[in-house]
Amino acid sequence: MTLQSLLTWLEQISLVTAIRESTSLFPWLESIHVLAITTVVGTIAMVDLRLLGLASRERPVSELMAQVLPFTRGAFVVAAITGSLLFASHASDYLHKAPFVAKLFLLGTALINIVVFHFLTARDIRTWDTASRLPIAVKCAGGLSLAVWVAVVACGRWTGFV
Amino acid sequence: MTTLQVFSDWLARTPVSVLIQTTDWVIPAVQTVHILCIAVVISAALMIHLRSLGLAMKGHTGGALAARFLPWVWWALGFLLLSGAMLITAEPGRSLTNPVFQLKMLLLILAISLTLLYQQPLRKDPVYWEKTPARRANAGIIAILSLILWTSIVFAGRWIAYAIGT
Q: Which among B31, B36, B47 has CB closest to A41?
């Protein structure tokens, strides 16, 4: 199956057709998507700013992550579901938009950054959990995350303009 | 023609509006800043109000969380006002006379008023909202109303684009 036939098949799913043909389903999904993505970006930024040593310095990193990241994960699932449905309704159009493709690569980068942070960088979290100035690798993870999520929002918005 | 309509048409012909309209990267860039500031407000409001409901940030007092997160809310609201004003200047016909935009502004005034109502007693007493069952219940009501309002504001923001000329 070629990519184009896959996209065409995707666009023919009845739920997806309903989203495309309804005048209100698309904006409702967009609204939920914006709410979810602002929650993802805002909550993950709290952790990123802590890793960069710019906010919540008096709180342990592990405590902040435990309190905030469940909301990030929940909101990301909602953003991914609504985003997939919005994508499927005009699948081949979106794949021809550069900002949309960039957004997918940025999301991949964010995912890799999270995996590297949790499985490598944060292995010795006990040694810096309560420190206000963190190791350079930790700061890099926070800085990269913040930059990537800002770029994800920018690409998401630009997708609507091209 | 209403005064608002006249003002909207005048604004759309001002040089600054024309400049933004003809520079195609300005609107998406300003909208990106606008959304990032909304991310700050939504996440901060979520932490403050879900704590009041016992659903987040356990072990923190209301006063401590307000002191930590509300400055972010007020700063972000300042930038939202600025970026929002730029978006109105660029496309006044899309916003000022749009009923969804007008609803969004009304909801915004209510959300800001509720935030001030919640913040005010905490300045003198960080555990004000935890002292009696009645106050805890009131903080819970403020929390639910605030979260509904902020959510509605985000939704209205998206629907502005679909309600032009209605």
A: B36
